[in-house]
Amino acid sequence: MGRIIRVIMCKIPSEKGQQDFIELYRTMGATAVKDKKPYIVSLTIGVTYPDERSKGFNVVGKTEFKDLDDMKYYEIECEAHQKMKARAHEVGIEDYLLAYHEPAVEVTH
């Protein structure tokens, strides 16, 4: 099994809450380790542009892992991610969607 892309989309009404959530992600990304080494391949998060198709989801994060085992570690055991999740309620998340996949097509230029 190859790389895993994990995407989270959140509804966070206040701009302060959006920025606070982004900061939680920044801290988590800088401190997440497995076997005392960074293991997240890449992490990106940001506020969406206004668009009715986003259906109110206004913060999107994408995290890439080398394989499903690393993503499962992130979800269940990663201390940095657990700390972030414990504080996530403070930012006022109203709803979220989460999905992950192994890329079937990838185009880079």
Question: Strands, helices and their partners?
Answer:
Blueprint: E1 4-11, H1 15-31, E2 33-34, E3 37-38, E4 40-47, E5 59-65, H2 68-76, H3 79-88, E6 95-101
Antiparallel strand pairs: 1-5, 1-6, 2-3, 4-5
Helix pairs in contact: 1-3
Summarize, please.
The chain is built from three helices and six strands.
Describe the structure.
With 109 residues, the chain is of the alpha+beta class. It has 3 helices and 6 strands; from the N terminus they run E-H-E-E-E-E-H-H-E. Strands 4-5-1-6 form a 4-stranded antiparallel beta sheet. The chain has a two-stranded antiparallel ribbon with strand order 2-3. A hairpin with a 2-residue loop joins strand 2 (33-34) and strand 3. Helix 1 runs antiparallel to helix 3 (79-88). The protein starts with a strand and ends in an 8-residue tail after the last strand. Residues 4-101 form the Stress-response A/B barrel domain. This is Stress-response A/B barrel domain-containing protein. InterPro entries: Dabb (IPR013097), Dimeric_a/b-barrel (IPR011008). It holds the Pfam family Dabb.
